[in-house]
Write a structure and sequence with these properties.
By secondary structure, this protein is an alpha+beta fold. It is built from 9 helices and 14 strands. The protein has 3 domains: about 50 residues; about 100 residues, Beta-Lactamase; about 200 residues, 2-Layer Sandwich (Heat Shock Protein 90), CATH 3.30.565. Strand 11 and strand 12 form a beta hairpin.
């Protein structure tokens, strides 16, 4: 009994290799009469088992364009609604015209054609990658069509998601570069030496990076204010976190507002370590976030230091003051007030409700 290896090509979708044992029929004397169709039938049954439940549909059409065979039909199209009908009778007009043009090209050129079709299915469309191969008649003319349609809807959804992500990434990158450029310019204007510029610039970039870490943990949907406060203080004064009281509403800031509030917290923290309440063991800092009682559309962020060294208002407006009183409030659509009280520095920032995610 001979054993042969067969390669069965399914409409250029994939190839199946099988070892098949064929037994031809024999006469009374035991002489073989010819090959049987047993091997081919067995092979198709194996292929059919593989295709059932997959995302691949197979079909064929006669010379007049009528479907005469459908296997594993696409979602929403049963064999009874397809067999004996043409593309125009089964598919939307636009899809039928697109498919008809590809079939005509396949017959004229004698080569496989590939086209992507979008078909309605419930509330969401389905996408298919359709491959068409011309089939020759006995006289060699190419009129009929055999084809395969692979459901690629999930791939299309992923591609669209990737495009959205790439657009968002480009937008964020431009915003980030603008922020860094502004930090570099303002830091340079207030630095007395290159060493001072490098030190201050690096600190602000680290602060921005820490804000991005908090945003990344929330998939860049936003950042919790309490998380921002803790991350910025722990960057320079982690042992002093026990001296910080955080009260009020743990609001969820939008990404842009989170970046700038992170920069404000950097200026407040480094100043408190050098000159304020976080520079002594007795100092306390109270950080709060609440709705503005007299204005439901606004929120108030407050940083107040107590029991620290006496503070005095600086004679000149440093970068930190500009950041706290001008840059940050402008960015978040609010106002800011910086008070150098004898008992400690107090900073109050109001921001629009639109800067928070409900």
């Amino acid at each position: 009994m001979p054993k042969i290896d067969l390669r069965y090509d399914l409409s250029h979708v994939f190839s199946v290799f099988l070892a098949v044992t064929a037994s031809p029929p024999r006469d009374k004397e035991g002489r073989p009469l010819g090959a049987t169709h047993v091997a081919k039938a067995a092979l198709w049954e194996r292929c059919a088992k593989l295709l059932r439940g997959s995302q691949i549909s197979l079909f064929s059409q006669d010379a007049e364009g009528h479907f005469n065979w459908v296997f594993n039909s696409p979602a929403g199209l049963s064999p009874s609604t397809v067999l004996g009908r043409t593309d125009e009778e089964v598919l939307p007009l636009a899809a039928a015209e697109q498919l008809g043009a590809a079939k005509e090209a396949a017959i004229q050129e004698g080569e496989m054609q590939q086209v992507e079709l979008c078909l309605p299915y419930g509330d969401d469309p389905r996408w298919y990658d359709v491959m068409l191969v011309p089939e020759e008649d006995e006289d060699g003319s190419q009129t009929a069509i055999i084809g395969a349609a692979i459901d690629i809807t999930e791939r299309k959804i992923q591609e669209e998601h990737l495009r959205i992500v790439m657009r968002e990434l480009a937008h964020r990158s431009k915003n980030l570069l603008a922020v860094i450029q502004g930090i570099a310019r303002q830091t340079a204007e207030n630095a007395s030496s290159t060493e001072q510029f490098v030190s201050r610039f690096n600190g602000r970039i680290f602060s921005l990076s820490r804000a991005h870490d908090v945003l990344t943990e929330a998939d860049w949907r936003g950042a919790r204010i309490f998380d921002l406060v803790r991350s910025q203080i722990s960057l320079y004064a982690e042992p002093r976190l026990s001296q910080v009281d955080i009260i009020g509403i743990n609001g969820f800031l939008r990404p842009n507002a989170a970046q700038y509030l992170g920069l404000a917290l950097h200026e407040l923290t480094t100043n408190a370590i050098k000159y304020g309440a976080l520079g002594t063991d007795e100092g306390r800092v109270e950080v709060s976030f609440e709705r503005v009682p007299e204005d439901a559309g606004r929120y108030r962020f407050t940083w107040c230091e107590r029991n620290g060294p006496p503070v005095k208002e600086p004679k000149s407006r440093s970068f930190g003051v500009v950041m706290l009183c001008n840059v940050v409030p402008t960015t978040v659509g609010g106002e800011a007030e910086l008070v150098f009280d004898g008992d400690g520095l107090c900073y109050e920032l109001t921001l629009a409700k639109s800067q928070l995610i409900p």
